[in-house]
Amino acid sequence: MTNKRISRSLIVMVFGTFFGILCSTLMNTGLPQLMTAFHVSEAQVQWVTNGYMLVNALMIPVSAYLIKRFLFRNLYIWATVIFLLGTLLGAFCHQFLLVIVARMIQAIGAGMMMPLVNVLAIRYARPEKKGAIMGIIGLAFNFSPIIGPTVSGIILDYLSWRYLFIVILPFILVTLVASLVVLPKIPHNESPRFDTRGLLLISVGLWSILMGLSNISTAAFLSWRVGGLLLIGVLVTAVFIRYQLIHPEPLINLHVFNHRQFVVATAVNMLIVATMYGNTILLPLLIQTLQHRSALVSGLVILPGALLTGTLSRLSGRLYDKISVKRLVFLGLAIDCTGTLLQAFIGTSSSPVVLALFQAVRQLGLVTMLIPLQTHALGLLPYDMVPDGVATFNTIRQVAASFGTAIIIAVVALVNAHVAGDGHLGIEAGFLVCLSLLLAAVLVARRLQSQFKTTH
């Protein structure tokens, strides 16, 4: 394809995917309102976000098969239609269970959109432009989940939670029309078999682990609801991994882990993303539940950092083309750790202005790392492994977001249940979990190698 056709296609796909990923955190600020409207607990309401991210994660490896099996254009159009149907259901449903179902249908569509954008960029962009193009894609992948709570905060200050679905509808309709007009027909010559057993195994494994983590705050660790589900989840996931290694056409091609830099960059990204998504729930809980401020204030606290992410995403992609990924990641981690320390030890009793400043510091660190890590993980893979690499990278990203959020919320609930107080210590503990994950990322990042002398 010509660069002009690639650019037009990427614009349409990034636009649609932006709203797909935006929905992963759009409901975060609305969780307190949903708890009130449907009379549900924290453990139940988090499924509105965690259920979305889990289904999203499961759809990403499925998309690796679909990319090989069907026309690129048709896949993106169908993904947009499915996302549109989930949004319509959410806009008009009247039961909490249907809200979760609507979110999961949205996640099916969004989970198909994400890998399609990456595959187009990595496969068809010129090598010297990959960093810059991935910076543009970063607007969808990294800016949208951060701006989600701000957008929902503004909406919820004037309208009900239902409008968190309604406002998305016109943008998805525009994406659908533009996709029909702009996207080219990219030929394919593969007819792989679908690994149904693999999908069932990973679905049961991840669902069991997430359920176990979600129940930590409401049941004893050695109970069936926590320890039992976690054990089943780990065992089934282990069976899945072994099965994938011997299957001729696996759901996820685990041989991408033979490439050391892919493993290192993916592991660092996993730890960082867990803190990023966890933070988008911690701040609304702190501001709305403990400080008793409005959803609008909660959203505005996140806004400066979100704008910083959007502004610098393209720059961070260009920096990857010129500066060693290891230097960029260590700089980003130093900034992120500083912001997290400030949040943990000063932020919980601070004004919204101070909280916004600390969050902006964190986002500066994140935006320095996320695009370079993604480009490093995928850009060094052999051409024929790119779809599998994209699927694996994005699956792990979404699983990390889902599990990280569940762990952080569980720690908050546990501390609040066992320590007397107004809840500030629980939020502080949540921020400290984020800090511990970032420190783990520092240790892993030591194994990153410069992209200018690395081939695998």
UniProtKB/TrEMBL annotation:
SUPFAM superfamilies for the chain: MFS general substrate transporter (SSF103473)
Keyword Transport: yes
Location of this chain's protein in the cell: Cell membrane
Stored PROSITE patterns: MFS
Gene Ontology molecular functions: transmembrane transporter activity
Record membrane topology: Multi-pass membrane protein
Alphabetical UniProt keywords: Cell membrane, Membrane, Transmembrane, Transmembrane helix, Transport
InterPro entries, per database record: EmrB-like, MFS, MFS_dom, MFS_trans_sf
Regions crossing the membrane: 12-31, 51-68, 75-98, 104-125, 132-155, 161-186, 198-216, 222-241, 262-283, 295-316, 328-346, 366-386, 398-419, 425-445
GO cellular component terms, semicolon-separated: plasma membrane
Domain annotation Major facilitator superfamily (MFS) profile: ranges: 9-453
Pfam families: MFS_1
NCBIfam families registered for this protein in UniProt: efflux_EmrB
Protein name as annotated: DSBA oxidoreductase
Originating species: Levilactobacillus spicheri
